[in-house]
Amino acid sequence: MEKVRVGIVGLGRLGKIHAKNLSEAIQGCELVAACSVVPAELTYAVEELGVQETFTDYQKMVESPFIDAVFIVSPSGFHCEQIQVAMAHGKHVFSEKPIGLSIADIQQTVNVIAEHPSQVFMLGFMRRYDESYQYAKKLVEAGELGEITLVRCYGIDPSSGMESFVKFAGASDSGGLFVDMSIHDIDLIRWFTKKEVSKVWAIGKNAAYPELDKVGELETGAAMMQLEDNTMALLVAGRNCQHGYHVETELIGTKGMLRIAAAPEKNLVTVMNQEGVVRPCSQNFPERFREAFINEAREFIQCIQEKRQPEVNAFDGLQSTRIALACKKSCETNQLVDILKD
Ligand SMILES: NC(=O)c1ccc[n+]([C@@H]2O[C@H](COP(=O)([O-])OP(=O)(O)OC[C@H]3O[C@@H](n4cnc5c(N)ncnc54)[C@H](O)[C@@H]3O)[C@@H](O)[C@H]2O)c1
Predict the structure, then answer these.
(1) Which of 41, 174, 282, 304 could serve as 180's disulfide partner, Cβ 3.0–4.6 Å?
(2) Residue 1: which pLDDT band, with cuts at 50, 70 and 90?
């Protein structure tokens, strides 16, 4: 089978990871082009990854007849337009989350994607491709927990990444804590329960990092949600985790409960020393979800080769962003938001 020729846009914090995976870890594809507005990133792509063609203009890369698919890892405000342009030029598209920052733009993008059913579209909700989340999903589907009554999620970035985050948030619109960070948890809530969220009440507090105020970002946020059948969800999101990268999910059902990463352990090692009994902690998203990023890219390439669509789609992008934006609105207005009426 011919190799899928991929062009990537964005070679920042996450773009470099995807680019390396596509070049070195995924069979059946070849990273042939890269686009960025930062010259050093293009030099990296050529010298470290052997990319043949580089672009500073995304439109020009997408017009190239030598690429079959694009990987969009640019700042979130570019995703909708870049997805639409790639679709119009006959390319398969992988886009990082969130699919977009406004419902009107996302709806238009969903429509454009729907007009091109033979082109693969996949959204980067990589947690669905993590081994532990997949194991939990199988248990839920097998009915091991009974009916789910509550989902509790923590998604807290390490404070060690604050400087790089403030730079990222200052340079472009991230969408804010709920759209940028909680969107993964919101996707998991929908994925595990197969239900839509109907009402949210969200709150937040900035305490330790005044630099977050300057870029209009929230340090810690929380939301309580009611789903359409009264299933409940609680989420905590943040940028100030002192012990590392804390992503934890709990499902409570009528027959049992499960927790994924109840403590965000790095691996199976326990260190016993003068500090006591120490379980090293997962430090950042590239480390925690290293395999998941590879698995999702592999799935994207296989979907193209097997002419099928992935499980995670544009509608998931629309719904998750709708809920995340409702959290943002609720937090800003200090009011409960009824998503069905909003
Ligand atoms: N799945 C996850 O867990 C996860 C984690 C981190 C980031 N992300 C998402 O990935 C995206 C990128 O995040 P990041 O942290 O890598 O950002 P970043 O700021 O580190 O990198 C952004 C990249 O986009 C490029 N760029 C900016 N404007 C451009 C333009 N007009 N044309 C071409 N390239 C342009 C920059 O040169 C840079 O290479 C965001 O949408 C973010 O939400 C997802």
Answers:
(1) 174
(2) low
